[in-house]
């Protein structure tokens, strides 16, 4: 049996009837940039995230860049980022002219902590970007007071955490700006690129609306040098349909995660840990294995497709060669990059596929 890592075609098929109606209506509306479909999605998504405002943008990387711009982070500034995140978190900082300063995560949760932030402080640090990695929320209840005490702006990278909760409250406005990706493989994925930002702050929301649209509120009047980074209305129409099933689809992921956690409890694999006070959304189910690459190859022989998030830490990428950071500077991120493996998980995964992953993994460890 072949078990795909994630079956996007099956996800599409489940929504096709309703989604195609919504997208066709959008195509036939004659409105192709921003407009009613984007506004409808923004309203629904803000309310889903328990935030006052949502701003649709072109992708998750731009959501981060625009948020940094809206908070006036730029050349001369430093921004704390996790050492073990997807490289987009770092790139957004670099592209604003600021310098990413890596913070090692907590080994159990893979997320940065309030203590880690405090220990990493240095002159010039203006902001921190906690990432809710793998759909496991960072401890915002502990991070926010420490960030405020240190005078830091907080931008959350929630690209993997649609629907998650920290301290009983949805991820969406704990920090100053919360950044979302609607990349197809994300829990709330579009049919192409898409992104968004949620916030409770009316001034940040207003600035973001300008910045995503050439710095313009009124056509041909440009208040500041913005980007062209707008959520596409057809994608917004699709996302509005998908948002309605997001909780149910996240619950299916949680069911698979619960089965894996039970089935692998006695295997010696290092399993994901859910911190107290958070509700994860299981974007990924990431385990650690000391001989990761051989384990992947043997699972592949049995038809079980896996991925690695991420095989090379940002500091070790050629793109960050000039920063001169070595694996010895960030030993945990380096070790995680060698040991993590993401098992198949997704809302359309069948019980038989889940059984197959369980028996393949149990046989191999
Ligand atoms: C996917 C992702 C991004 C970037 O999103 P894009 O829409 O692909 O630009 C940023 N950060 C994290 C943690 C992600 O997983």
UniProtKB/TrEMBL annotation:
The residues responsible for catalysis, as annotated, are 186
The UniProt GO MF terms for this protein read:
pyridoxal phosphate binding; transaminase activity
One biological process term from GO is: polysaccharide biosynthetic process
Q: Which residues carry this modification: N6-(pyridoxal phosphate)lysine?
A: 186
| A matching Pfam family | DegT_DnrJ_EryC1
Q: Which UniProt keywords apply?
A: Pyridoxal phosphate
Family under the similarity heading: Belongs to the DegT/DnrJ/EryC1 family.
Q: What is this protein called?
A: dTDP-4-amino-4,6-dideoxygalactose transaminase
Originating organism: Roseovarius litoreus
């Amino acid at each position: 049996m072949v078990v795909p890592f994630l079956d996007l075609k099956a996800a599409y098929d489940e929504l096709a009837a309703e989604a195609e109606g919504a997208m066709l209506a959008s195509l036939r509306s004659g409105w192709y940039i921003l407009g009613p479909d984007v506004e409808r999605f923004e309203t629904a998504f803000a309310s889903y995230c328990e935030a006052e405002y949502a701003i649709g943008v072109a992708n998750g990387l731009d959501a981060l860049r625009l948020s940094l711009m809206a908070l006036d982070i730029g050349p001369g500034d430093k921004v704390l980022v996790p050492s073990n995140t997807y490289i987009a978190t770092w790139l957004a900082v670099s592209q604003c002219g600021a310098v990413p300063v890596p913070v090692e995560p907590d080994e159990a949760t893979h997320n940065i902590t309030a203590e880690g932030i405090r220990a990493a402080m240095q002159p010039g640090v203006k902001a921190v970007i906690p990432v809710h990695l793998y759909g496991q929320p960072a401890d915002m209840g502990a991070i926010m007071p420490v960030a405020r005490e240190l005078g830091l702006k907080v931008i959350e990278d929630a690209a993997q955490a649609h629907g998650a909760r920290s301290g009983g409250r949805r991820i969406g406005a704990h920090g100053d700006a919360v950044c979302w990706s609607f990349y197809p493989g994300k829990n709330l994925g579009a049919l192409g690129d898409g992104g968004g930002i949620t916030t409770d702050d009316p001034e940040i929301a207003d600035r973001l609306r300008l910045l995503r649209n050439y710095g313009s509120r009124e056509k041909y009047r440009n208040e500041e040098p913005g980007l062209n980074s707008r959520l596409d209305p057809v994608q917004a129409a699709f996302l509005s349909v998908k948002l309605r099933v997001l909780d149910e689809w996240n619950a299916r992921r949680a069911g698979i995660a619960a089965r894996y956690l039970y089935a692998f409890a006695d295997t010696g694999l290092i399993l994901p840990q859910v911190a107290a006070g958070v509700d994860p959304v299981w974007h990924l189910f990431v385990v650690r294995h000391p001989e990761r690459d051989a384990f992947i190859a043997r699972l592949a022989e049995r038809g079980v497709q896996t991925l690695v998030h991420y095989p090379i830490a940002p500091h070790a990428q050629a793109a960050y060669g000039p920063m001169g950071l070595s694996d010895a500077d960030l030993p945990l991120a380096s070790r995680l990059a060698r040991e993590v493996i993401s098992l198949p998980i997704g809302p359309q995964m069948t019980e038989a596929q889940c059984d197959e992953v369980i028996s393949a993994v149990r046989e191999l460890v």
